[in-house]
Amino acid sequence: MIEITRLFDFAYYQLETHNLDAALVTKYDGEWVKTSTKKYLDKANAVSRALLKMGVKKNDKIAVISSTNRTEWNIMDIGVLQIGAQNIPIYPTISAEDYEYVLNHSEAIYCFVSDEEVYEKVKKVKSNTKVKEVYSFDHIDGCKHYSELFEHGKDDSNQSEVEARKDAVQPDDLATIIYTSGTTGKPKGVMLSHWNITSNVLDSSPRVPLPPSGETRVLSFLPICHIFERVLIYVYQYAGTSIYFAEALDKIGDNAKEINPHLMSVVPRLLEKVFDKIMLKGEDLTGIKKALFFWAVRLGEQWEPYGANGGWYNFKLKIANKLIFSKWREALGGELTTMVSGSAALQPRLSRVFAAAGMQVMEGYGLTETSPVVSVGLYRDNMYKVGTVGKPIDNVEVKIADDGELLIKGPNVMQGYYKDPEKTASVMTGDFFHTGDKGEIDADGFLKITGRKKEMFKTSGGKYIIPTLLENDLKQSLFIEQVMVIGEGEKMPAALIQPNFEFIRDWIEHKEHNIGTTEEEIASSEKVIKRIQKEVNKYNARFGKWEQIKRFELTSDVWSIDGGHLTPTMKMKRDVIKGIYKDLYEKIYRG
């Protein structure tokens, strides 16, 4: 049996133990195309042979930029890693200037892109970098196609050199540099070794609730350039699971119906959008159907794990499942039992409703710097509690500092920030990494994240405010798409709110309000402002008087990655948002 100590070992282990016909599956021209474990490795070896012929040496950097997850990404990953080079994944949605920064900072010598849009951005900056050549996965005029590497590596006379390079790769060798989409300043390059990530995969795997037997299908769509999805891809390879790559975010529902996945990973924002769409459909119902729909949702909101609500509740839930929730499951393929959620806090209400509907959401916690998994819930073995991120995984130690900050120690903690020893030293105390997150561990050993250390602020009255707690509650409102709590050094907390324009247009139509439906008309409508005030009052009631949102302003544009409001992982760039809406900020506090 292969001993797994390096990232490429997972694919060879899969060949030895499962040897799947459908290891990686991508849709091309309307058809799902399966790549077997053997073909996957044959292609990866051809890539390795070609890269050696192209002069790629140990520790050379190869950039990969893909708009969607796809088979080619994984072939490149193994092809690069097993010859001792490093895979530098880059977020596709960042600007051409950021591409230039990452390509230069990492000193990448080759770049592989997925499509024309990405290629055009790379082409703009290539002459300012050390990149010798760009290859694409799609066929693009004027760009070399990555299949040239298969031709180049067809002759296997240098396979012995590939094997020698592979044998020389040590677990502590650098595997990848992941550039985090910082909410401020330039991206930081997080150096992760083979063992950082491999140990995390092995220690996380027992927490993944895969079906006991038969073919298991997962749907992958969160960006593979982010360590969360990338680790899950290795977990799935280790478990012998067929990985289907979704065509795009807006095709998830269609793709799920086609492949009937058992498992998928999500981020809270996506689940919020799915839930909002379900609720909009519920609003369209009439009479008894509408009454039953909202009865089921209210029932779901009361759900507790492990049958804690008793027999009568479970009887009602069976009826709700038959009449209402079964249709939710059908919309996601009918066989989805578990979703793994990461990257931000999940509303407890969503945990309850989706679990009641037979699709449990296991929330996890981690950071790029911790490869990433620190803790994750698991329904079996009593390792699940609503509102927590589960219990720490094996071999990872979580310590709470005196000021409430979470400190992490384990084989998953990064090697440091690339070319930045000072920044590395600033986040380490001995072997412990400072996360910047605040949290607590309850009496049963469950970890709860309470906010970002840096984001916590004091009002002029000296009261502490944790904005994320307020924001997560307010975002439960169907009327609110995004919200940022402000008020550092001011007399009271306030909020900048991006309305949920899609839902509000539907609300306007239902209520037959005489309101315009452009973003500007919605954001300035007295009726909308009054309705959102009602929502703010409702959620304010859960907080102390000093924490409550006293005033808010609505923004008339959609907060987006392209607009600069959000990072590629959908986190708010607080300073940027405050700058964009300086006028609204002044209106709240000086108006």
What does this structure look like?
With 591 residues, the protein is an alpha/beta fold. It contains 21 helices and 27 strands. Strands 2-1-11-10-12-13-14-15-16 form a nine-stranded mixed β-sheet, with helices on both faces. The chain has a five-stranded parallel β-sheet with strand order 4-3-5-6-7, with helices on both faces. Strands 17, 18, 20, 21 and 22 form a five-stranded antiparallel β-sheet that branches. A hairpin with a 5-residue loop joins strand 21 (432-441) and strand 22. Helix 1 packs parallel to helix 9, helix 2 (37-53) packs across helix 3 and helix 12 (287-301) crosses helix 14 (348-356). It is globular. The model has no long low-confidence stretch (mean pLDDT 94).
Main traits of this protein?
about 600 residues; alpha/beta; nine-stranded mixed sheet; about 40% helix; globular
* Strand-residue proportion: 15-25%
Head-to-tail CA distance between termini: 70 Å
Q: SS-based structural class? A: alpha/beta
In angstroms, what is the radius of gyration? 25 Å
Strand order of the largest sheet: 2-1-11-10-12-13-14-15-16
- Provide mean pLDDT, rounded: 94
Portion in helices: 25-40%
Main sheet attributes: strand count, strand direction, barrel closure = 9 strands, mixed
Shape descriptor reads globular
Number of strand segments: 27
Low-confidence stretches: none
Q: Quaternary arrangement of the chains shown?
A: single chain
| Number of helical elements | 21
